[in-house]
Design goal:
The chain folds into two domains: about 190 residues, Orthogonal Bundle (Clc chloride channel); about 190 residues, Clc chloride channel (Orthogonal Bundle). It is about 70% helix and about 0% strand. α3 runs parallel beside α5. The longest helix is centred in the N-terminal third of the chain and has 28 residues. The chain starts with a helix and ends with a helix.
């Protein structure tokens, strides 16, 4: 109980710090586009140097580390789950957002939640391996629930993505942790919806039969390509960049930061950071949406790929949902019968499902984050199409494959 509440409190504090960092970056770069070329390369290089020098285990999104820890021997779990790693994850992610990195805090919150629960288990000196495993799983699920204020998605994520090979009896602890963490989140932050509220609907007709398959196929292909780029890493890059990544990771991170700076210059900074504000504007069909959704989508895709491959700590949940929102908005003129609002949500769920190949999680997250239950069936259909399409591009599941690097 204490651990679940603590995860929720840390998740809320992390969210506030991330918002503050994004505002700092906006303030520093507004009217000063040359600042992109200082903050992005310098920030990514410093983040990677600190991670490799002092905080091994904090790199990347954090979800692969939580999955890996579930299958590690207890004596090795502290390499990726500890208070030190959790604190570094928070600090370096906030720093990365202040430097314009296209990262999210949701994946890192999974590792942080698992670290908190794992550390409490060590303090209590719990002897049984399955109980320690249950704590790690519960902490990760509570992290997702707290980061998005999506308790149902936390449970589904634990079952569909984290809990492969974990005994079913541990899911009871997961449910308790998510419920308690959800109560704490609502009590402290209020019952907010992450991407606002939309009443977009999809009538039975051309919108259904054209919009759902189109979003599912395009989103699945794009999401599968993104996952493939992350799984392959720098192995498919030109030889000079592969050598730079191996011999001098810090300079390679600076190169990735230079890519970010160019993206920021081309989009006036809208494609940098978590992508929360433009994605919310697209979901709510409100002011502040990108003037060119095609440019935003492509630029956000490039920025998120560069940020992750740099090796810095940071997640891909929020940036992926932002890419999906732009993708759906770009497809909307092709299916006017569906409506722009519905296509945005279909694009989000399809791209995200294509990336993580977890259609239930994708559906529930988008449904809960936008407070829209009316689109549940078309969202699920698009997510399933996207998952199958994604497998033509990336046969290996993203998080499961990345977790093997930490075994």
């Amino acid at each position: 109980m204490f651990g679940a509440v603590l995860v929720a409190v840390v998740a809320i504090g992390f969210a506030d710090a991330g918002t503050w960092a994004g505002n700092v970056f906006t303030d520093l770069t507004t009217g000063r586009p040359w600042m992109f070329f200082i903050l992005c390369p310098g920030g990514l290089a410093l983040s990677v140097w600190l991670t490799q020098r002092f905080f091994q285990g904090a790199q990347g999104s954090g979800i692969p580390q939580a999955i890996a820890a579930l299958h590690m021997q207890p004596e090795h779990q502290d390499r990726v789950l500890s208070p030190r790693v959790a604190a570094a994850k928070i600090g370096l992610c906030v720093f990365g957002l202040a430097c314009g990195a296209s990262i999210g805090r949701e994946g890192p919150t999974v590792q942080i939640g698992s670290s908190i629960m794992h550390s409490l288990g060590r303090v209590l000196k719990l002897p049984r391996a399955e109980v320690r495993q249950a704590l790690i799983l519960a902490g990760g699920a509570a992290g997702i629930a707290g980061a998005f204020n999506t308790p149902i998605a936390g449970v589904v994520f634990a079952i569909e993505e984290l809990g492969h090979g974990v005994r079913s009896r541990t899911l009871g602890s997961t449910l308790y942790a998510v419920v308690l963490g959800g109560i704490a989140t609502v009590g402290i932050a209020g019952n907010y919806t992450y991407f606002g509220t939309t009443d977009a609907a999809l009538g039975w007709g051309a919108g259904w039969w054209l919009g759902v398959p189109l979003a599912g196929v395009v989103g699945g292909l794009a999401g599968g390509l993104f996952a493939r780029l992350l799984v392959e890493g720098v192995r498919i890059w030109p030889k000079p960049l592969r050598q730079l990544a191996v011999r001098s990771p810090v300079f390679f991170a600076a190169f990735c930061g230079l890519v970010l700076a160019l993206v920021g210059l081309a989009t006036n900074g809208t494609a940098l950071g978590s992508g929360y504000d433009p994605a919310k504007a697209l979901v709510e069909q409100a002011a502040g949406a990108p003037s060119s959704v095609v440019l935003f989508t492509v630029a956000k895709f490039i920025a998120t790929t560069a940020s992750y491959l740099s090796g810095m700590p940071g997640g891909i949940f929020a940036p992926s949902l932002a890419v999906g929102s732009g993708l759906g908005a770009a497809l909307a003129p092709l299916v006017p019968a569906a409506g722009a609002g519905a296509l945005v949500l279909l694009g989000m769920v399809s791209y995200f499902s294509g990336v993580v190949q977890a259609p239930l999680t994708a559906t529930v997250i988008v449904m809960e984050m936008t407070n829209n239950q009316g689109l549940t069936v078309p969202l699920m259909a698009a997510a399933l199409i996207a998952m199958q399409t994604s497998r033509f591009v990336c046969r290996k599941p993203l998080y499961g494959t990345l977790s093997k690097r930490f075994h």
